[in-house]
Amino acid sequence: MSRKVFSPGQTLRQELEQILGTEDLLTEVQELTGYEVEGLVPAMACFPRSSQQVAEILMSANSHRSPVVPWGHGSKQHLGLPLKASGLLLSLARVSGPLEVEAANMTVRARAGMGLKQLSQHLERHGLFLPLDPPDADSATLGGCLAANSSGPRRLGYGTLRDMVLGVTVVLPTGQMIHSGGSTMKDVAGYSLRRMFIGSWGTLGIMTEATLRLLPLPESRCTLAIRSNDCGSLLQVMARIRASSWLPAAAELIGPGTGHEGVLGLKPGQWLLLLQLEAMSEVVQRQSRETTAAATDSGIADITRLQGQEMESIWQSYRRWWQRLETQPSAVRLKVSLLFTRQDEWLHQASDICLETGLAMRLVAHIGDGILYPHLLPGNPAQEETLQPAVEQLGQLTTRLGGFQMVEVAPRWLRKRVQLLPHRGDYPLMKKLKASLDPDNLLNPGRVLGASASE
Amino acid sequence: MLSKALLKELRSIAGRQDVLTAAGDLVAYSYDATQRQSLPEAVVFVTSTAQVSAVLRAACRHRVAVVPRGAGTNLSGGSLSIRGGIVLELSRMNRILEIDTANRRAVVQPGVINLDLQNTLARLGFMYAPDPASQKTCTLGGNLAEDSGGPHCLKYGVTSNHILGMELVLPDGEVVDIGGATADTPGYDLVGLLVGSEGTLGVATRITVRIMPLPEAYRTLLAAFDTLEDAGQAVSEIVAAGIIPGSLELMDRTVLRAVEESFHAGYPVDAEAALIIELDGLEDSLERQAQRVTEICHSNRVRLVHLAQTAAERDALWQGRRGAFGAVARLRPAYIVEDGTVPRTRLVEMLRRVAQIARNHGLCIGNVAHAGDGNLHPLILFDPADAAERARVEQAGREILAACVELGGTLSGEHGIGLQKQDCMSLMFTPDEINLMRAIKHTLDPNDLMNPGKVLPPL
C-alpha cells in the first residue's frame, strides 16, 4: 500500500469544529507543515483539552475512517517504524489538567500533555522522585513517554514505565474511554491491559492520563565518571559491580566521538563510564569505595566524583550528545539488546565491521541493562553506500550473540532496504490484537509492526 | 464423558498411565484452595512443551475445555474445571533449566515450586523476589498466571515485574516465544498481558525470570500499638522518611492472639495491631534506618518495639506471621481469606470498615495486611455446617470488596478473580472495559476453551 494522507470531508471538519471550536483546530496547510511525519503532512490538527474531547475526536475520526496520528511535543516522531498513512493529527499537548499528587501514597496522576521536565520538577518540591530520564527528558511529554515506553539511564536502578505505571486512562480507536489499573501496586483484577498500551506507540489506543508510582528523593547522590582508552576494562569494572549485591542507579558507557571530548579532560579516543549512585549516604559512600577499588584493579585511575551542579550538568551534556548524534544528516541509530555478558564481544566485533566498511561508529549504551545504541555516521556520500551492509552485518552479529537489533533512526531510503525489526514469532499474535482493537488500522498505522500489519 | 476418540488421542500423547479418568482419581483434581469443587472429565500429566501443545490441539479440535493446573493452591477458584473437560497437570514439568547469575536470569518450567527455586538460588547467593505465602507448594506457572504478590512487593514489585519472557502454548496448540532474556523486545508487551491472565489465554511452558542477589543484611523489628491508627500512621511516616522496608506486615488483635497461642513468638496479645518491619540491603545504612524506624514508632505511641538480635529471633518473628492463617484456623472450624487492596493511606480506615462489617453480620474477622502496599487479607471465620453463617460470610466478603473499591482500591491484590469475584467485576469495570477484556480473550482463545468461565463475568 502506498503511503497517503486521508482527506477529510466537510462533515468531519464540522464535527471537529463542534467538539473543539476553531481555536483548537488547525486546517490551513501552512500551519500544518510543522506537523509533518516522514513526509506526510496531516490534513488537520486537533488540540483537545481533555480526555473527553480526545474520545469525541476518535469517535468522529473512526466513523469517517480517517487515520489519526497522535503527537505530544514531537520529540520522538523520527523514531519507530515508518508511518503508513496520515489524516488527523491529534496533539495531546493541551491535555494537561491539574496534577494530583498523593504524597503520602507516593503516587501522582497526570495528563498526557504534561511535560516530563515540569512533572519531575513539581514532584521534587514534594520530596518525590519519578526516576524516568529518557534522552529527550527536557522536551518530552508524559504521554509520549508512555506511548513509546521511553526509558533512560536510570532504568537500571528503577526499572521502566512498565514498573512505574499503576493505572492509565485510554481512549480506544472507537472513541470509548476506558481505565486500566488504579493507584495501588498490587492489582490483579481483570487483565493487565495497561501494560499492553505502554509502548504501543498509540496504535492500540491513546493514553490520556496515568497514575505513576513515585519514590522518595534519595538522600545522597553522586556520579562517578571513569575514563579509559580501553572499553574492555570499563566493562570489567561494571562486571565486578554487577557481581556484588548492589547495582548503581545508572551505568552508561559512552564511546569516543560522541561529543564528550574536552569534558572532564576527556581526550579523543577515550571511553567514559558514568555511574550514578543514589541511596542513603553511607551506602553511596561504600558504593563509591567499591567502584574505585574495582577500577584500580582494572588498572584505571582516572575517576572523578561529581556532585550537585557538576553532576546535573554531566547528565545534561550526555542528553545533548544523544540528540546531536541522532540529528546528524544520514545518521543511523541502531538499538541493540544483548545479555550483559555478550556486550564485550559485540563491541569487539562491531568495531571490526565498522573498520572494514569505513564508517564511524559512535556508541552510547545503558551498559548495565545490555542495551547499546550504536550510531553510524557516514563522513561523505560515498560512505552512505556502506550503511546498508554495515547495518546488515551488525544485525547478523547481534543475532549470533543471542540478542536483537532494531533500526531506530535512519534516512528514508535506507529504511526501505534494511530490516527494521528482528525476526520474531510473536508478531502474528500482536497483529491479531491490533486488528481486534483497531480493525480499520486507523491509529498511527505502521508505527509498531510495520507494513505487514493488517494493512 | 470425553469422546473415545479424544481419550485415545490423549493417551497416545501422554501415555496410558498418565491420563486419569477414574472417578476416584478425578476427585483429587476437583478442588483448589477455595471451598468449591468441580469434577474434570480427565487429568493429563504432561512433561514437555510438545505434549502441552498436542493436548491443546486435540482439545481444540474436539472443542473441549482445558484447565491448566500447578499445585492447586488457587484462592479464587481458578483451578476448578467448571465445564468438565481436561485438567492439564503441569507439576511434573518441574525442572530449573538454567541459572545465569552473571546475567541475573533463570529459566524454569512451570511446575517448579517457588521455594525450590528460592532454595536453589540461595545457595548461589541469589533470590527470586516474589514469594507468596504459599511458596512451599505453589508453582512458578501458577505465580505467573495469578501475578502473585507476597510480602515483598512494596520494595521489589509483583510477579509481573520479574517475568522477562516465556514460551507460550496458545489455546490452539501453537507455540510462540514472547518477551525474552534481553531487554525491550519489540512490539506490544504480550508478557505483561499474559502475566495475571489466570490461565485463560494460554499456557506458559518455559519461563524466564529475573533473579537478584540476596540482600547483604537484614534488620527485623516487631512493633505493637494500642490502636490501628497509630500503627497506620507509623507505616506512612516510615515510607515518607524515605525508608522502603523489604516488608511491612500488619496483624490485628484477633490474629496476634491466635498466633501467640500457637507459636509463642513473643507477640503482645493485648495490642490492637502489630507490625513486622524488615529492612534489607547493604549493611552500612541499616543501623540508621532501624533507629529511625524505632523513633517513628515511639512518636506514634508504640507500646513495644523490639529489634530481633539474632537470626533465630528473626525467624521466630516471621514464623508467627507465616503461620498466621494456620493459627487463626484453630479458632473456628473454617475460614476464608479475602483479598483486596486500598491505597496505603486508606488501610486503617479500611480495617475499621472490616470491623464494622464483622459486627453487622455477627462474624469474627481477623486481619493480616501487607501494610506497605495496602493489601489486606481479612480472615473470615465460620462453621461450614451452619448454612446461615455461611451466607453471612459470603455477604460480608462482598461488602469488604465493595468497600475496597469505594476507597480507591481494587477487588484483588494477589489472589485473582477466578470464579469467586466475577460477580464483583462490575463494581470496578464499566461494560466497555469488560468488553475489551472479552475481545482480547476472544482474540487469543476464539473457541473459549482455555480455563473458560473465569475472570470475566458471564455474558
Would you kindly provide a written description of the structure presented here, covering whatever features stand out?
The complex is a heterodimer of chains A (455) and B (459). Chain A is of the alpha+beta class. Chain A contains 16 helices and 21 strands. Chain A has helices spanning 10-20, 29-32, 51-63, 116-125, 142-148, 155-158, 161-164, 193-197, 231-242, 281-297, 308-326, 343-357, 381-384, 387-400, 412-417, 427-437; strands spanning 4-5, 25-26, 44-46, 68-71, 85-86, 88-91, 100-102, 107-111, 128-129, 165-171, 177-181, 206-213, 215-216, 220-228, 250-254, 271-279, 303-306, 332-337, 360-366, 371-377, 404-409. In chain A, a hairpin with a 4-residue loop joins strand 7 (100-102) and strand 8 (107-111). Chain A starts with a strand and ends in an 18-residue tail after the last helix. Chain B is of the alpha+beta class and 459 residues long. Helix content of chain B is 36%, strand content 21%. Chain B is built from 16 helices and 19 strands. In chain B, the strands form four sheets. In chain B, strands 12, 13, 14, 15, 16, 17, 18 and 19 form an eight-stranded antiparallel sheet that branches. Chain B has a five-stranded antiparallel sheet with strand order 5-6-10-8-9. The model of chain B has no long low-confidence stretch (mean pLDDT 96). Chains A and B meet through strand 11, helix 8, strand 13, helix 10 and helix 16 of A and strand 9, helix 7, helix 8, helix 10 and helix 16 of B.
Q: Could you provide a short overview of the structure?
A:
Chain A is of the alpha+beta class and 455 residues long. Helices cover 34% and strands 22% of the residues of chain A. The N and C termini of chain A lie close together (7 Å).
Features:
heterodimer, A: 455 residues, alpha+beta, eight-stranded antiparallel β-sheet, five-stranded antiparallel β-sheet, B: 459 residues, 16 helices
